[in-house]
Amino acid sequence: MADRVQGLDAAAFRSALARFPAGVTIVTTRSAGGTLHGFTASSFAALSLDPPLVLVCLDQGATCFPAFIAAERFVVNIATPAHAKLAMRFATKGEDKFAHGGFESDEGGHPILPDAAAVIRCELEQAVPGGDHVILIGRVHDARIGSGEPVMWYRGDFLHLGQSVT
Length: 166
Prior knowledge:
Distance between the termini: 34 Å
Structural class: alpha+beta
Largest sheet: 7 strands, antiparallel
Strand content: 35-45%
Helix content: 10-25%
Number of strands: 12
Mean pLDDT: 90
């Protein structure tokens, strides 16, 4: 197996992964010092119903990586088509991600998107290394559903539910 992995064409691998539509999330937290942090992730999934667990993957090279590893809590905001520009900002290094507003704070000061398709608030259960990423496992302590439809990431662009693909 290792020989096949070493011979893998990275561009072909990325292109193959781009053929799998994935939801778009904006994951946020607040550091102990009060600084807000966040990133865009399409690697998000339910892990367990009992106990309620979700997972999200974070690049170890991300500026916010240390903040999320140290965080006790984080929030998964499921993006809608209206959040496309915001999701791109949260996917970019060096941006002041919270500069243009749009977020409210929960009782713990963690940023939430009030118009998200869903908001899932978690306690960090475990951080598991996974190649160049870390898998953040969150124990869900609260989930609320919004009225908007989620947006998907497909072949390097946003895809709205019901939109045809060419």
